[in-house]
Amino acid sequence: MSTEGTRRAFVGGAVATGAVIGGMALFGRSGDPTIAPDGVRVVAGRNTPPAILFDPVEVDRWTALVGKPVRIAGEQGYTSGTVESVQRVRSDGPRPAGVRKEGFTVTFVVDAATAPVGDAIYDIGHTIEGLSRLFLIRAADRGKNAVFFAFFN
User: Fold this and answer.
1) Distance of alpha carbon 87 from alpha carbon 131, whole angstroms
2) For residue range 40-55, what is the model confidence (pLDDT) as tens digits?
């Protein structure tokens, strides 16, 4: 068994696999469009635009939103919070063609009492034009605050 390869090749394969599976989950099912093939519920409003397969939004536009309010549609309705931080992901060497200039992570903080479950796609309201849905990962709560991450590679 060969273990040779690069981190970039591994991440690229994972992203491609995720895009295919995500596309199948969002567009390839009949019946209830909020149920993914693995039975996980996708939380989104009824009048949401189609999913964006590749988002060209760059880190600087998100950095400008740090400290700004954000609304996230969760299982219990909308909850309010803030964009807490944007962290650039260091990448050595040139990036592949067709991807954003640099990867980054956006951290959101919302009230834990009304926070979504996480690890699903959620409608999100903010001032980034054209991006209305994100896959949010819920981290450990900080007291009365729930912390979520969105990764952009």
Assistant:
1) 19
2) 555 555 554 444 334 4
pLDDT value for 8 = 61
Higher pLDDT pick, 31 / 147: 147
CB 112 within 8 A of CB 123: no
Residue type, 65: L
85 sits in the region (left: phi over 0; alpha: psi -120 to 50; else beta) called beta
User: How many other C-beta atoms are found inside a 10 Å radius of the C-beta of residue 121?
Assistant: 21
Q: What count of residues does the chain have?
A: 153
SS3 readout for the chain = CCCCCCHHHHHHHHHHHHHHHHHHHHHCCCCCCCECCCCCECCCCCCCCCCCCCCCCCHHHHHCCCCCEEEEEECCEEEEEEEEEEEEECCCCCCCCCCCCCEEEEEEEEECCCCCCCCEEEEEECCCCCCCEEEEEECCCECCEEEEEEEEC
Q: Rounded to 5 degrees, what are φ and ψ at 131? A: -120, 110
